[in-house]
Amino acid sequence: MQESPKSSYDVQPYPRLPFAQSHPDRLATMGRVFGLNPPDVRNCRVLEIGCATGGNLIPMAEQLPSAHFVGFDLSQRQVDKANEWIDELDLKNVEIVQLDIANANDKLGEFDYILCHGVYSWVPVATQDLILELVAKHLSPNGIAYISYNTKPGWCVRGMVRDMMRFHVRGIDNAADKLSQAQHWLNYLVQSVSPNDPYGIMLKKELDSLSGKSQEYLLHEYFEDQNHPVYFHEFAASLESKTLRYLSEADVESTFHGDLSNEVLKTLERLSGDEVQLEQHIDFVRNRTYRQSLICHADQGVHRALEPAMVERFFLESLLLPTMSPLHFRNRFNGITLAIDDPVLHCSLSILAELNRSDWQFQELVDEITRRTNNAIDQKKLQRMLLQAFAAGHMAFHTVAPRYSYDLSGMPIASRCACSQSRLGANVTSLSHHNVVLTDLDRLVLQSLDGETHISDLAIKVQTLIRERKIVSIDLSKPQDAIDVSVKNLTRMRLLLKSD
């Protein structure tokens, strides 16, 4: 953030990607879970530090049209690209400017949610301090901030690999050559060490971790001059010095430590004098490399004891989908399969999956279960089970009803952000703020959902586009069937807007 104006991010900008964990609704949800009263997401003010080309911030502006969004970045090239996209989408509730964080404090107002993704570990230590000063000064009294950063002990090994690669490619300026030579060197290292040697096993694991990563990620993560991972207790101490405090992780499963056994957790609790020590001990056990931490002002009363009745404060979404086996459900994000034998919970999850909605409220769900089973249910027990499912990462809670539509009839309208992205490639941002990948046919159908074309006329419109663009990869031997499947896919991927 304090480089010269012609930074590496001017040369190699990041692609437009959303980060669902940084969404204001996720921050507000975690705040409510731990007893805070965060600002209403529907009309909040959001700031993103280091917003790059707006891939995270601009889709939020479409999803929350009554909220206001501000972003800044040091790279003028990335800011220009962001503003081109804002102009194309004609969004009036988002602004992105070129700004150095060293000069930012006097130019900003108050914000309910402050986001800082992929910046904190990649700037000088003095700039890290400026980031926390900015959060402390500009976060509203009940607001929540999000900061992602690399952590030790996991990055101790990763940092060693980074240092070796950087040394090997010193003097190489071309990005593609740099990545290629570094990859060859790491491959050679792995092959040169016995596969049974602990050092060789460690190197092989790091090599495997790089597989599938984008060129932009590798260049900025492994070859930037600045990369300063920290221990969690160091980060927490930095927060305390700014009268801030740790709230939780943005990632639900990490927050509730579902990957650790009760025995391990109890032992770590006995060894830890406070919450910070516990989190640090857990990082030691996990060999953690990365955190996405939520932060609030130090005077906010955080309550760690979870009350099942809080379920009534949220809109509910199941992340579990039914499988061919009657009792089993599969998590649509991580692929985990669960057997659900409790009849009430099974009925709840079946209803949520069947109707594909994300805006159920608890009492509405209870009424539907009662109607289907013709039996009264133990509501407190159901609350406990839904809360447990949330803590395990199998349910999502929302503070605001999502804007995406479940209606497969009439004249549907697609997300404008996603339509714009689909003209450039297969990766688009859903209205639930996730990156989704479209087929060629899905891209054309999405671009045809303009709110003026009836669903029964889509086949004709899409066939015309195929002929005009001379696309030979799409088989429309049964056009209406293919279009119907595509619209269902786009609905399932949360890409269709509710009519206002």
CATH class of the largest domain: Alpha Beta
CATH topology of the largest domain: Rossmann fold
Low-confidence spans: 1-6
Mean pLDDT: 91
Structural class: alpha/beta
Which overall shape is indicated by the principal axes computed on the Cα atoms? globular
Quaternary structure state of the chains depicted: single chain
Number of domains: 4
**In the CATH hierarchy, what is the superfamily of the largest domain?**
Vaccinia Virus protein VP39
- Ends distance: 40 Å
Largest β sheet strand count, sense and barrel closure: 7 strands, mixed
Topology, please?
Elements lengths: L7 H4 L12 H10 L11 E5 L7 H7 L4 E6 L2 H14 L4 E5 L12 E6 L8 H14 E12 L3 H15 L6 H18 L5 H13 L4 H8 L9 H10 L2 E6 L2 H5 L5 H10 L3 H12 L3 E8 L17 E4 L1 E3 L5 E4 L5 E3 L3 H13 L4 E2 H12 L5 H13 L3 E4 L14 E2 L1 H7 L4 E3 L5 E3 L2 H9 L9 H12 L9 H14 L3 E2 L3
Parallel strand pairs: 1-2, 1-4, 2-3, 4-5
Antiparallel strand pairs: 5-7, 6-7, 8-12, 8-13, 9-10, 10-11, 14-17, 15-16
